[in-house]
Amino acid sequence: MRRDLFAMPPGIYLDGNSLGVMPHAARAAVLRRLDEWQRDAVSGWDHWFELAETLSPALARLVGARSNEVIATGSITANLHALLATLYRPEGARRHLVATALDFPSDVYALHAWAERFGAELRLIPARDGQTLREEEIRAALTDDVALVLLPTVLYRSGALLDVPGLTRAARERGILIGWDAAHSVGSVPHELHDWGADFAVWCHYKYVNAGPGAPGGLYLHERHHHLVPGLRGWWGHDKATQFEMAHTFRPAAGAGAYQLGTPPILALAALEGALSVFDTVELAEVRARSLELTAYLMALVERHLPELRVVTPREPTRRGGHVALAHPQAHALSLALRARGITPDFRAPDILRLAPVALYNTEAELETTVQVLRELLDTGAYRAVEAAGRVT
Question: Rounded distance, CA 90 to CA 271, Å?
Fold first, then answer.
């Protein structure tokens, strides 16, 4: 779709749901900021002081928010703690937290910490098949004693996409705060977080946004909560107009910018700055359409040529994100063997092979080659020798 905008690694890269490849614009933006550092030293802060805020309009377009509702800062876990410290206020019987048994572990760690602090219960909605969730069971968990629910937009193992607007509406109708971990959807699936009424969301930028390893995360807070003073406070969240008066009284910046804590990593923000410029050249609806084409084609190839592998990701376009999960008892060995052949997949224990045909840079030909190699590996058993050699993912 826009492969020309990326510095593609050797071979076939199908792990963009873990780490996206480098856009040329990200490299150029980092080099530009490095030149500013060399030339200006501390005076470079004249250029960098509000760099995160200048990125907010681009972030807002990615997640369907207003510019003052989003900020690039922290990480998913740090941002989740900051939002829970502000929003989670258990009162009376309405005190418990809800997540799912398929959430990314770090989210669960954070939620457990806050449940323990307030003597509340963290309820994890089970997955009957171990891979996907039944949305009627999510709705059933939204009971009168629940204060807050955090859900993933896309399940990181299976690639299943939840009904974000419908579940948001269900939580709000019950008076429950609802937040979303959008790590596996931002940059791949269009969002309308403000119009859907989501209370908050967190995500990373190193997957489908391609901003580099450890890129600053993203935070969204609906403007109806902007009257609240952040529960976690740091000097970079202070009102910019008076930040350098160095007063000991915290005066929060307007909107989501108040949730910044320490001095931002400018070089990392620069990579994000460059990566976001890629999305100035494409419409998210086009990205989504291309992603659905590629994932559908991959699933069809697997079902035709690799009946030994079970497609875990939902077939329905409205129920899948940007990657395809395949179950096989030897998934780990197959992942190692693919890497030995120059194809980069992803493995999730105990038996999931994840392949992410990213709309911006992957092709049908790459998917055909990958399936051909998998067929050869299964027919010859060559994957067993690779695993025995002790190669690592």
Answer: 39
- Listed in order, strand segments (DSSP E) in the chain are 6-7, 12-13, 22-23, 70-72, 96-100, 122-125, 146-152, 177-181, 200-203, 218-221, 310-311, 324-327, 343-344, 346-348, 352-355
Longest dimension (CA), the chain: 70
What's the pLDDT at 129?
85
The domain made up of 23-278 has a fold known as Aspartate Aminotransferase; domain 2 (3.40.640)
* Res. 113: pLDDT tops 70: yes
What pTM value is reported for the model?
Answer: 0.96
Q: Write down the CATH superfamily of domain 3-22+283-388.
A: Aspartate Aminotransferase, domain 1 (3.90.1150.10)
Dist. CA 141–CA 125, nearest whole Å: 7
User: Tens of pLDDT along 53-78?
Assistant: 999 999 999 999 999 999 999 999 99
Catalytic residues: 104, 181, 206-207, 354
Q: What is the pLDDT of residue 213?
A: 98
